[in-house]
Design brief:
Helix content: 25-40%
CATH superfamily of the largest domain: Medium-chain alcohol dehydrogenases, catalytic domain
Number of domains: 2
CATH topology of the largest domain: Quinone Oxidoreductase, Chain A, domain 1
Structural class: alpha/beta
Order of helices and strands: EEEEHEEHEEHHEHEHEHEHEHEHHHE
CATH architecture of the largest domain: Alpha-Beta Complex
Length: 353
């Protein structure tokens, strides 16, 4: 994942002067080249809001989809992109109780998904999609739209958590929680899979991860993977998973949505669960999903990030090492995104390296 730190305006502590913020917009949502920078006035805070000075923003594959018009969820016109950002509270509304000036906070992905099952309103409240995102110098959030993050995390590290870490947590601690002795298959070495690997390992589960790179598999093993499968050299990786689990299959699969659903059904055990969280590729499937669910008694569940309550659980559970490893492994995977976004940002002088 690409990490950027914004050059920020000096802030008058009294806020008597009009405050302005530079921020990016996507006027057409058709290409990254459409990114436009503007200077806008920061509105006056409402009684239940906090003003956050953004220190770090991280990029997800979802941000590339939004910028190029390929994101399947709704995107507001002229959106400010990016969902994942961390910063410092610099002003609070008069009725705000849980935050004070100087608190280090990170925004939740879906601003209206606070706990329980997500609603239609929650589905449409994603930062950088249905709502303006965090690629800005200052951002106003409702009090419930941010959480504090642990002191041992930097702004850059905390900015990697809202999308990938919460999704991984929801996959493994949703209706069928991972337990010691369970087996978990992680597809690829993207953010959700790497966070999921470490969550599963910490829970005492047996972990299997796939990748097209033997080097990445070795790194994943250092993070807790018990087995690695190169899906290029082992195209029938579902059979290998069965072999590694004594013919039973795994209890949990984190499915990235890359045309692998049929093989996932071949790798999951009877009464196991497939957590589908990604839309990396749109491919034709010849799998009869209803029949496969019936025969295998498999639970197939869609996961759209997670709630504020789940994010709090993530924040309370993660260690410094986990976030650092996520940044390291995501860097190579995000090369295209990094090159295209960062080059434009540097040209327009919001991002400094």
């Amino acid at each position: 994942m690409a990490i950027f730190c914004a050059g920020l305006l000096l802030l008058a502590t009294t806020f008597k002067m009009s405050l302005q913020s530079r921020q990016y917009h996507l006027p057409s949502n058709t290409a990254i080249d459409d990114l436009t920078i503007r200077t806008v006035d920061v509105p006056k805070l409402k009684y239940n809001e906090v003003l956050v000075k953004i220190h770090a923003v991280s990029l997800n594959y979802r941000d590339l989809m939004v910028a190029t018009g390929k994101y399947p969820m709704g995107v507001k016109p002229d959106v400010v992109p990016c969902s994942d950002g961390a910063g410092e509270v610099v002003q609070v509304g008069e009725h705000v109780k849980d935050f004070k000036i100087g608190d280090r906070v990170v925004g939740i992905f879906n601003q209206l998904h606070l706990e329980g099952a997500i609603t239609d309103e929650g589905m449409g409240s994603g930062l950088g999609g249905g709502l303006d995102g965090v690629l800005t110098e200052y951002k106003i959030f409702p009090e419930y739209g941010v959480i504090k993050f642990p002191e041992y995390l930097s702004y850059e590290e905390a900015a990697t958590l809202p999308c990938a870490a919460v999704t991984a947590w929801n996959c493994l601690y949703g209706p069928t929680p991972v337990q010691a002795g369970h087996s978990v298959l992680l597809q690829g070495t993207g953010g959700v899979s790497i966070f999921g690997l470490q969550i599963a390992h910490a829970a005492g589960a047996k972990t299997i991860i796939t990748s097209s790179s033997d080097d990445k598999l070795e790194i994943a093993k250092s993070l807790g993977a018990d087995h690695g499968i190169n899906y290029k050299t082992t195209p029938e990786w579902d059979k290998k998973v069965k072999e590694l689990t004594n013919g039973l299959g795994v209890n949990h699969i984190l499915e990235v949505g890359s045309g692998s659903v049929k093989k996932s059904f071949g790798a999951v055990r009877r009464d196991g669960s497939i957590q589908s969280f990604g839309v990396l590729e749109q491919t034709e499937q010849d799998a009869n999903v209803p029949l496969l669910c019936l025969i295998g008694q498999v639970n197939l569940r869609g996961v759209f990030v997670g709630s504020r309550k789940q994010f709090l659980a993530v924040s309370n559970s993660y260690s410094f090492l986990m976030s650092r490893c996520w940044i390291y492994l995501r860097q190579e995977r995000s090369n295209l995104l990094l090159i295209e976004f960062s080059s434009l940002m540097k040209q327009k002088r919001l991002i400094h390296t």
